[in-house]
Fold this protein.
Amino acid sequence: MSNPNLFVCQSCNDAAHKRMKPSQGAQLLEQLNTLQSQDSPITIQPVDCLWMCSRACVVSVSAPNRPTYLFTDLPLAESAEALLWFGKLYHDSDDDDVPWKQFPEVLQASGIAKISPVPPSGDER
């Protein structure tokens, strides 16, 4: 099983803080990198933009042949630890799905999309 990637938009700010520097996304990225343990199965990957401008903070969690989860409107102060926990749940999931009841509360309160994986080539679903 591939380790999950946690893609963090490092340019986003919410509408009330459009010109904030460093951006809320960059601050979240810094928090994630600080809190992540060295033995974590998650790869934290900054991206310039996830096209959810004014919906700070925005993060996606994905791995090959697995659903992608997109989180928006994450509260900066509470999200890093919850995202790392979710990444572990995602990594440890046997059936490629994380049950809603296991989502950390702060993530349940955010904007969420679950995007189906692209089927492998030649897979006739």
The two ends are 21 Å apart (CA to CA). The chain has a mean pLDDT of 87. The helical segments are 24-35, 76-92, 105-108. The domain at 5-115 is CATH 3.40.30 (Glutaredoxin).
